[in-house]
Design goal:
The structure holds 2 protein chains of 2 kinds. By secondary structure, chain A is an alpha+beta fold. Helix content of chain A is 48%, strand content 14%. Chain A has 3 domains: 114 residues, Acyl-CoA dehydrogenase/oxidase, N-terminal domain (Butyryl-Coa Dehydrogenase, subunit A, domain 1), CATH 1.10.540; 109 residues, Butyryl-CoA Dehydrogenase, subunit A, domain 2 (Beta Barrel); 130 residues, Butyryl-CoA Dehydrogenase, subunit A, domain 3, CATH 1.20.140.10. Chain A is globular. By secondary structure, chain B is mostly helical. Chain B folds into 2 domains: 136 residues, Acyl-CoA dehydrogenase/oxidase, N-terminal domain (Butyryl-Coa Dehydrogenase, subunit A, domain 1); 150 residues, Butyryl-CoA Dehydrogenase, subunit A, domain 3. Helix content of chain B is 59%, strand content 6%. Chain B is built from 12 helices and 5 strands. In chain B, helix 7 runs antiparallel to helix 10, helix 8 runs antiparallel to helix 9 and helix 9 runs antiparallel to helix 11. The chains are: A alpha+beta, B mainly alpha. Chain A: One of its GO terms (molecular function) is flavin adenine dinucleotide binding. Chain A: Keywords: FAD, Flavoprotein, Oxidoreductase.
Chain lengths: 383, 296
């Protein structure tokens, strides 16, 4: 089972992206302490995202005709891996580059492609995803936000919540009901692009347990949308969202969320206790797990590069990857706590605390652990 | 490579059904099985063509070792394959007897079948009698090679255990429906699938660099396969219930071997410590360590 997942090599021309990208990243993160870099995809820096766009590191898989690099999934893997491993602040362009642009390319009209994709590739159009609602989490088909037909467009009413980046973004691609009721489940759902500066849109920050406010609740009160706000087919929203989630779940971001902490601890360990056998065993074990997960993520990337939509395989890697990401702060914390008389630097301590607090979200965002395992079970031929 | 792998799968199905595994474990005659494998020519899969072998690279021959795991072949077939390859390179002759890599304690319930042991280094291998336990300095250099074989066996057995567990869950009815429809079991089977894939890719890392494997690749492979083996065996038994722990049901042949192989030739902790020492020797960020080529 899953025999199509095999070791895959990154083409040399994609490996070559690392050096120029590292130079750009180094300028940005030079003065950033580890506890800020640990935020990585919660770290918002619109200037850095525009610089990445200008240097050609965004829209890597988008056609040249739409302002993209016209490259493949491996080029994107390399760039994402470098950004995350360094803890670069990528939140501004993250969602637009990862899933909004591919979604618009695949399902959008020519006019929508021309309007949004080149701007995304320049790092100038920032997107968020409107999926969750107060009464609609894992049971996404139960969304109640409605877009009703009016002359020349749609009228939008309802509420989204837990929307990452909504405070800073230009646009939201929202999953909304365009016909029927939530009893109709997957039927009657559509995706619309909402300009978050339009009249009737209200965005309020939500502070999380780390003290950050990266997500928000967004209210729609008689928001008028043009006809061309609809992406893809009316009523086809569920299939489109499923395809979009495959992009979201398949990247290397599902193995690197705790790597800034891992590196900070490694430096501490090799400086303070370089011959501590128990600690070295912990370091070696985490390193080995990361090496296997990276190959699994590359194997999924190879499926993407072949034009497949590896939904089940991506779920499998995400579930295993987030387990690793969540184990890192536990193992690092236990190691440091095993030496209560040894001082821990403030930067390492803050990085540990942040990663410990952020870790529960790893297996929530982009599909909970239990939902992913349900997808895998179906892929195995159960139920 | 498929043209070499399919016939080997059929050969093992014919020669090594569970009844033969049980008989050999109980002290029965292993010679007929061994002779069948000798006659098949597969023991020379890794021997260079100029020395009369098939000249496969280690990663090309790895699926054969996986099949040995899948069929729980209770003879050192994979060990003999790599031993012959090393001996051929060194210009040393060998006989048709089984050869085991001598790298330390066995964790199998019954003593391993081997007429001879291979000791020394990949470049300078030596055959010694099975009774002579070489000193540790003569065993350690071959341990990475033995570890990648065990990882392949774990991957092969793990894939089989996953198939058996899914089939059983779809077949066994309780509370009026197949137990595979229960979410609690579905979640466990999903984890089992993850671990089976992880074991297979970990094992593939071990053989990607050829013969002999780089110690780092071997460590990653055996660490990953050993961790997965314990989870795979545990979940499979949870799915199968009481029938799974009965002697007559074949699952136990696989799960007992999974545990033996995960402990043989260095367990997860042993290889984790090796990797930790390597990381301490050349401090680097995790990604730079991942990108650096492994040294043989």
């Amino acid at each position: 089972m899953f025999e199509t997942l095999t070791l895959a090599a990154i083409p040399a021309e994609d490996e070559a992206l690392r050096a120029p990208l590292r130079a750009l990243i180094a300028e940005t993160i030079a003065a950033m302490p580890a506890d800020r870099r640990a935020r990585s995809w919660q770290g918002f820096d619109a200037g850095f995202s525009r610089a990445l766009g200008a240097a050609g590191f965004l829209g890597l898989t988008m056609p040249v005709d739409y302002g993209g690099a016209g490259r493949g999934a491996f080029a994107r893997f390399v760039v994402v891996e470098e950004l995350l491993a360094a803890g670069a602040p990528v939140a501004a362009h993250w969602i637009a580059d990862r899933q909004s642009a591919p979604l618009i390319l695949r399902f959008g009209t020519e006019a929508q492609r021309r309007r949004y994709i080149p701007a995304i590739c320049r790092g100038e159009a920032l997107f968020c995803i409107g999926m969750s609602e107060p009464g609609s989490g894992s049971d996404l088909a139960s969304v109640r936000t409605r877009a009703d037909r009016v002359d020349g467009g749609w009228r939008l009413n309802g509420q989204k919540i837990w929307t990452t980046g909504a405070l800073h973004c230009d646009y939201m691609i929202a999953l909304v009901r365009t016909s029927g009721t939530s009893a109709d489940r997957h039927a009657g759902l559509s995706q619309v692009i909402v300009d978050l500066r339009a009249p009737g849109v209200t965005t309020r920050p939500i502070t999380d347990l780390t003290g950050d406010a990266h997500f928000a609740e967004v209210f729609f009160d008689d928001v008028l949308l043009d006809d061309d706000a609809l992406i893809g087919t009316e009523g086809g929203g569920w299939a489109q969202v499923t395809a979009e989630l495959a992009f979201e779940r398949s990247g290397p971001e599902r193995i690197y969320s705790s790597v800034v902490l891992l590196d900070a601890w490694t430096r501490h360990l090799l400086r303070e206790r370089p011959t501590d056998v128990a600690a070295l065993e912990a370091l070696g074990g985490l390193s080995a797990r990361l090496a296997v997960l990276r190959e699994m993520s590359l194997a999924v990337t190879a499926r993407l590069a072949d034009g497949e939509s590896p939904v089940v395989e991506a779920s499998l890697v995400k579930d295993l990857g987030t387990r690793f990401e969540q184990d890192v702060p536990v193992i690092v914390g236990e190691d440091l706590a095993a030496h209560p008389d040894a001082p821990v630097g403030g930067e390492l301590l803050r990085t540990l605390l942040y990663t410990t607090q952020a870790a529960p979200s790893y297996s929530l965002r982009g599909g909970t652990r239990e939902i992913l395992r349900g997808i895998i079970a179906r892929g195995l031929g159960l139920r | 490579m498929q043209e070499l792998i399919e016939p080997f799968a059929r050969l093992l199905e014919d020669l090594c059904p569970p009844s033969v595994v049980r008989a050999i474990e109980a002290g029965g005659d292993w010679r007929p099985l061994w002779q069948g494998i000798v006659d098949s020519g597969y023991l020379d899969a890794l021997v260079p063509e100029e020395a009369g072998g098939a000249g496969l690279a280690l990663n090309e021959a790895a699926p054969l070792v996986g099949l040995l795991g899948r069929h729980v072949v209770p003879l050192p077939v994979g060990d003999t394959m790599v031993a012959r390859a090393l001996l051929a390179r060194a210009g040393t002759a060998w006989s048709d007897e089984p050869i085991a890599l001598a790298t330390g304690a066995s964790f199998a319930a019954t003593p391993p079948v081997a007429a001879q042991m291979l000791v020394g280094t990949p470049d300078e291998p030596r055959l010694v009698g099975a009774e002579a336990l070489a000193d540790p300095a003569e065993r350690a250099p071959l341990r990475p090679l033995a570890a990648v074989l065990r990882a392949q066996q774990i991957a092969g057995a793990g894939a089989r255990v996953l198939e058996m567990s899914v089939a059983y869950a779809n077949d066994r009815v309780q509370f009026g429906k197949p137990i595979g429809r229960q979410q609690a079991l579905q979640q466990q089977l999903a984890v089992l699938a993850e671990q089976a894939v992880a074991a297979r890719l970990a094992a593939a890392i071990g053989v990607r660099g050829g013969l002999p494997p780089a110690p780092r690749d071997a460590a990653i492979a055996k660490h990953g396969a050993s961790l997965a083996a314990a989870e795979i065996a545990g979940i499979a038994h949870a799915i199968h219930g009481a029938i799974g722990i009965s002697e007559e049901y074949d699952l136990q042949l696989l799960t007992r071997s999974l545990h033996a192989w995960r402990l043989a030739d260095g367990g997860a902790g042993y290889w984790a410590a090796e990797l930790g020492r390597e990381r301490a020797a050349t401090p680097a960020a995790a990604l730079d360590w991942l990108l650096a080529p492994a040294e043989v």
